[in-house]
Amino acid sequence: MERVFEERIVYQRPKALATMPTRYCPGCTHGLIHKLIAEVIDELDIRERTVAVAPVGCSVFIYQYLEVDACEAAHGRAPATATGLKRVQPDKIVFTYQGDGDLAAIGIAEIMWAANRGENITVFFVNNAIYGMTGGQMAPTTLPGQVTGSSPAGRDAESTGMPIRMAELLAALPNTAYVVRRSVYDIHTIKEAKKAIRLAFRTQMAGAGFSMVEFLSSCPTNWHQSPDQALEWIKHNMVPYFPLGDFKVADTVKQLR
Amino acid sequence: MAREMLKGNVAIAEAAVRAGVEAYFGYPITPQTELLEYMSQRMPELGRVFLQAESEVGAINMVFGAACAGAIAMTSSSGPGISLMQEGLSYIACSQVPAVLVDVMRGGPGLGNIQPSQADYNLLTKSAGHGDFRSIVLAPSSVQEAIDLTVLAVDLATKYRTIAIVAADGMIGQMMEPAELPPMRPLQTTRPPWALTGARGRPKNVIVSLALDADELEAINWELQAKLNRIRAAEVRYETMLVEDAEILVVAFGSAGRIAKTAIREARQLNIRAGLVRPITLFPFPFAAIRQALCGVRSVLVVEMNAGQMVEDVQQAVRGQVPVHFYGRPGGNVPTPDDILEHIVALKEQSEAPPGGELREFVGMPLSARMG
User: Fold this and answer.
1) Strand B23-26, strand B49-52: pairing
2) Do A51 and B198 touch (CB under 8 A)?
3) What are phi and psi of A133, to 5 degrees?
């Protein structure tokens, strides 16, 4: 006996994700993080009131990959630009998407002060320990001893300092509401990352203040590794220095869980 | 509206409020700080946005964000702060969003000092940032004109989706004099169609300054230039005084232009036919007005509170037709009417004597002690 099941869509492209193919290198996790953000935007039904601020770096073209209003900030300035966007239209959902050079080096003043003001915006911080777009130079989050185009003998922490832990730094500021670090190196971490994206957006929707999700991300091209080696490298080299976890969950945010 | 005693910085701030500025972002710097302080009280009182930024870099990028949202946004600063804003101004120019900037100029370069100056002429008029763009630059010579030009800056920035700069000097910012404020305008109630308000029922709006393809970026550049040409054709503003019969033409802007007026009246008392062209728009520069005023002129004297910047534009306008001389006071000093008169008299005497006198033509070289 034959049974006919009603057709049910179990997966489709999020509306917030454009059909434009990304220009990311094979194995780069930027595209995956974009998709997670797009899925959450759809699930929260905020696409039509969301404004993205693109950074300078590999993800400079995020405005082509997401179907949301967007502008493009100068290198590191996205949190200031987002501040301007949000202050004049507090009903919109404003987020920045920034890399480690953008956020933790040239833009350190802008991110610190947006966070310190408790600016009601969301920051997605993609940390891959390298400057990707310029071809693999030492980043503020490059690990000690890590070989890059501008640290050919490996990062010398004596001379260049230690990699900066942004999530821990921002969590220490009294006015931040939700600051966490996630990764995307396997199914479990991807699921956890998506949950954090959702809670970060919900933090902003509730008016609870500044939210940031830091993602440990891969750069197979500039790390000179295969995509699967790169994911292993995140797990074995980055996670010990940049522990995954929640560094700040304000009481107002806990209630949203 | 009645005339009242107003300090320049406060007058500019209130004029901006009344012209419809919805958001102000700034950072303290002398001699413009009263503007920021006034806004910190006035904007929240009206339910508008005020935020003291972490730096001028932060402030200009907040202006960029607010402008992307379609709001009329403004910042103000002085030389060292304007230097920091240049990056953001370039992005704003290429992104073609409106922005209003006030530069209350002080002595430079470097930290310089806090006295009145016109040392940012080149910075503001030639290129207030990297790449190929110009901003509209308006130079007031009184508190009243600072008010009027602030309102105009709001209108022109909005009309052309460009940067409009009020280039005041520390004297305008710090001086109190009677002036009349404009009536309060209602705020705009809708957002322009290009604004980033969320893609509700329309395709997404994207405001960017990135164009990797050379042909695409060239096209954007020509579009910007076409806009500048429309501005050049429609927005030149200047004042003339006694130019019809002038034998010595003084060209000066802002406070220097105002001081020159006194010198010219005194010269007339001495039977020296002096006249004045005072550029009000420094960009677009009134080249044609200066050329027009040259009829019968035997020499031109440019007076600036800097070491010689606008003089190059005047030379371009004059095209070698008559000698162009320069008298400048850089470093925060302000010329007196007597200083300027002395130079007018010297030019008059020289124009009747064989060349080779002390008053040398401006060739962009260090000037003699007398010239300084």
Assistant:
1) parallel
2) yes
3) -65, -35
Nearest to B77 by CA among B97, B96, B104: B104
Residues 192-211 of A with CB under 8 A from B: none
Instruction: Indicate whether this complex's ipTM tops 0.90.
Output: yes
Whole-angstrom Cα distance, residue A60 to residue B308? 41
Contact A53, A85 (CB under 8 A): yes
What is d(CA A68, CA A54) in angstroms, rounded to the nearest whole number? 11
Which of B308, B335, B324, B329 lies closest to B360, judged by CA?
B324
Q: Which pLDDT score, from 0 to 100, does residue B356 have?
A: 43
Q: Using the beta-carbon criterion (under 8 Å), do A87 and B66 form an inter-chain contact? A: yes
B131 and B26 together in one domain: yes
Q: Which among B302, B261, B266, B262 has a CA at the least distance from the CA of B282?
A: B302
Question: Domain tally for chain B?
Answer: 2
Provide the domain limits for residue B142. 3-234
As beta bridge partners, residue B106 has B116
- Does residue A245 sit in helix, strand or coil? strand
**How far apart (Å, rounded) are the C-alpha atoms in residues B278 and B258?**
8
Q: How many CB pairs under 8 A join A and B?
A: 134
CB-based burial label for B80 (10 Å; 0-12, 13-18, 19+): middle
CATH number at residue B292: 3.40.50.920
In this structure, are strands B274-279 and B238-241 parallel, antiparallel, or unpaired?
antiparallel
B210-233 as b/e: b if 16+ CB within 10 A = eeeeeeeeeeeeeebeebbeebbe
Task: Answer yes or no: do B201 and B290 share one domain.
Answer: no
Find the CB nearest A87 among B23, B201, B205. B23
- CA distance linking residue B29 with residue B36, whole number of Å: 9
Same domain, B101 and B221: yes
Asked if the structure places residue B259 within a domain, the reply is yes
Is B357 among the domain residues?
no
Report the Cα A233 to chain-centroid distance in Å.
18
Residue B154 shares a structural domain with residue B273 = no
Contact partners, residue B214, CB within 8 Å, separation at least 6 = none
Per the CB < 8 Å rule, is A88 touching B69?
Answer: yes
Residue B365 lies in a domain: no
- Report yes or no on B285 lying in a domain: yes
Selection from A134, A71, A69, A139 nearest residue A103 by Cα: A139
Enumerate domains of chain A plus CATH numbers.
30-149+161-254 (3.40.50.970)
Please state whether beta strands A210-216 and A176-183 pair in parallel, antiparallel, or not at all (unpaired): parallel
* B59: chain A residues, CB-CB within 8 Å: 80
pLDDT tens, chain B, 372 aa long: 689 999 999 999 999 999 999 999 999 999 999 999 999 999 999 999 999 999 999 999 999 999 999 999 999 999 999 999 999 999 999 999 999 999 999 999 999 999 999 999 999 999 899 999 999 999 999 999 999 999 999 999 999 999 999 999 999 999 999 999 999 999 999 999 999 999 999 999 999 999 999 999 999 999 999 999 999 999 999 999 999 999 999 999 999 999 999 999 999 999 999 999 999 999 999 999 999 999 999 999 999 999 999 999 999 999 999 999 999 999 999 999 999 999 999 999 886 654 444 455 665 443 443 343
Same domain, residue pair B251 and B197: no
Instruction: Specify the pTM.
Output: 0.95
Q: How far apart are CA A163 and CA A143, in angstroms?
A: 6
